[in-house]
Amino acid sequence: MLNPVTPWTATVQADIVGASLLHEASLLNYRLQFYNAGDSLWLTVQWPNAGRIAFRLAFGMNSNFDKADVIDEGDEIVIDAATRLGRYNIRISFPETDPPVVRYTTTFTASFQLLIPFWPRDIVPLTYDGRVENTTGIIHTHQVGTRSGHLYFSMTRPQNGSVFYFQNLSAMSDYCDVSQTSLAETVGGTWPEIGFEFPVNPEKPIPAGIEYTISDAFVVLDENIVKNDVQATTQFLNYLALLYPHISKPEVPYQDWPFIAEKTMEHLHLNKGSWTMVNDSPYLNAYVQDYETPSEIMVQLAVKLPLHEYLVWSESSHPLYEDLNKGLDQFYDERIRSIVRWHPALVDQLDKSEEQKQDMVMDSWYLHHPLLNLARLAHRGDKIAEKLFVESVDYAIKAAHHFNYEWPVFYKMTTFEVIKAETAPGKGGELDVPGSYAHVMLMAYKLMGEKRFLTEAVRALKSLEGLGFDIFYQANNTAFTAGALAELYRETKDEKYLQLSYSCLAGVFKNMQLWECGYGYGKNFPSFFSVFPLNDAQYTAAYEEFEVFAALHHYMEVTDGIDILPSLKILIPEFIKYATGRLAFYFPPLLPQDMIAEEIKTGQVQKELWVPVEDIHDGWEKSGEVGQEVYGAGMSFGVIPRQYFKLKDLDGMAFIDYPAVNFRSGKNRITFRLTGDSGFKASMRFLGLSKAAVSKLKIEIKQGSKYAEIKALYENIFEFPGNAMIRISW
Known about the structure:
The chain contains 17 helices and 37 strands. A hairpin with a 4-residue loop joins strand 29 (644-647) and strand 30.
């Protein structure tokens, strides 16, 4: 026996052999058969010239199906079934896709109040005449925590092919709300018991007579077995984009980001709990009222960079920016000729409770992240940032050479002594750091023009080859690495860099939540398309989410004109669209008081303060327990330059929820192009315009070689397909 199994799987093969055949159908080269096996209704899929995989459509819960009527409606197969416990309705449909997809949606109506203490998973590989436990397969990726309900696997014995399975978890929210259960860790399993394990409710019964969706599964069928990491990550993105048009999606609320930015700037500047004075210079705390942790350079730059973007966009100034400039150079240490993490005058405050809370101990990503932000500021003309970057970059190269481009988690900056080598035993160090380092080197190359920096970037990126999904360590760094790889592709025309960028983005998208949590506190904030900061993080985090948003904007800009993977033209703009409506909900004024944690790990949460909480949890858990994240406050400044553009002649502005490129301004005219796919919609709205100004506006979309005027969807709101060329004139 290769794989031990439970009784509910051990008997499946024999149960189906002896089961009553309800119906047969075909889908391209695949043969579909529906069975009533007593306590379960099954769909088996026969691969061309290969084996079968069984999908459990319904589970009888210690009761047999004494009724199972099948109606074939052509484009949909409907099964009405019943046991002594209740009624089931199963709808099997076949979206028009290539490769083919089977969707099965099952609802259940209990005949009386019911507790559900057990449920088996819904996918079982079958053999011709052997035993289920002797099959073999490779699980490429699966749901972790409350991320998307996805499962991607290849069956290798017998040699079937591959399956991308996606459970639309949004559909189970009503059940979870009434039963007080969670959809975390429901899609996955261990071969051969895999698939969706419906969340059980052993304590709070569901009521009788109410229909609940208990499964809404999409199954992508592929005859090919994944052969390498590049194919696995690329196909993952393709499958996700293939299903995206067919999964339920919530509306995107508009957020008044200019208002949020002004409130954040005012509160951040005046709130004493956000600042610490050192040597007559003010420094932002990492968290509100956190005076125990010394000032960190990352925190200062995480706010300074987006604030600079906002002030340039708004053509204004603010004393907050000047405060952030004061004393920034004090983070430079002459001993090693580099910036350091902790303010040198405060290192005696480090409590040594964690490895990195010691003088001169560096978290590998933590060196490169501030260097990147210094480089970005330097490219924007900030001389203080440029000086710090130029004087520190050679230390980063020295560290890279010492570690041979494979960085540990923590090391001593003065001696390069390794404090912690691996994130977990056998998992290696921070695997996306070579990408962050390469990004730093590319920025140095563009700033100083020295070829040695380009050489360093190329050498570092070799460490990413062959890692596939495992490149991902921290979401924001991995997303920015994708953009750096795209830039290097532009520089070298080497296709491997573009393919590596896809692996980075696959890691980011597998760590997203493509479903809306409609239970518990989850009803108070949108969660669709949220992204988790780490592979094993139990909550989404404000700063990392914003940086992924900024990084994916950058990716669309640097790949403009490049023939990138078509699936990314769907997924990235759609992520950005949802982020514009979702990110604002990290700010406590938009959250109900009762969902904010009472016990805070660091500092305190001030409900009326426009500074985001760090953490949003599953719907049954309170949020903000980590603290009110000062370094995440730059979010409100960074969204505006990417989504708003000014109409100076009309004294107003416009907001568009997709990334746009190629802005051109002329006399009484602006043109730009949306990124994205024409099968999806972006919306634009005008703000602050007088009625007289609105009456002058003419909105056109390019069709062929000419522009055609379009009318508003609602007052001042227009809708465009992705990849459209837009002209606004007045």
